[in-house]
Amino acid sequence: MFWDFNAIYALWFNRFPGAEVLAGIGAESVRFCSGNYNCDIYGNCSNYVSSNHFMGDVRGGIRIYAYRNFFVRPEMRLYLVHNNVEFSSSHPARYGVSIGYTFGGSKYRDSGR
Description:
The chain is mainly beta. It has a single domain, classed as Porin, CATH 2.40.160. Helix content is about 5%, strand content about 70%. It has one helix and five strands; from the N terminus they run βββββα. The chain has one helix spanning about 105-110; strands spanning about 1-10, 15-40, 45-65, 70-80, 95-100. Strands 1-2-3-4-5 form a five-stranded antiparallel sheet, with no helix packed on it. A hairpin with a 2-residue loop joins β3 (about 45-65) and β4 (about 70-80). It is elongated, with a radius of gyration of 20 Å.
């Protein structure tokens, strides 16, 4: 699981396309399941071992407005995980496409250009 707090900057080029850049900090929480149950003195039992790491993340995406304020956004996100010894890389990446809606407006979207 990735937990993070981000700041985002969005820019419109003209009426239809726009760009987004995002950066933030957070943590990665990894849980490995095991066949054994670990119990504490209070009777709380779990069958996993967890490991937490500090991380930063950056994302870039292009917003393409299909209809009014509805957009499609192809994006790429890179996580920079500190001391991630459980996996072969400390730089996991995620690629995807989002569908969204923009509330409010911009000088390009409201002026009809």
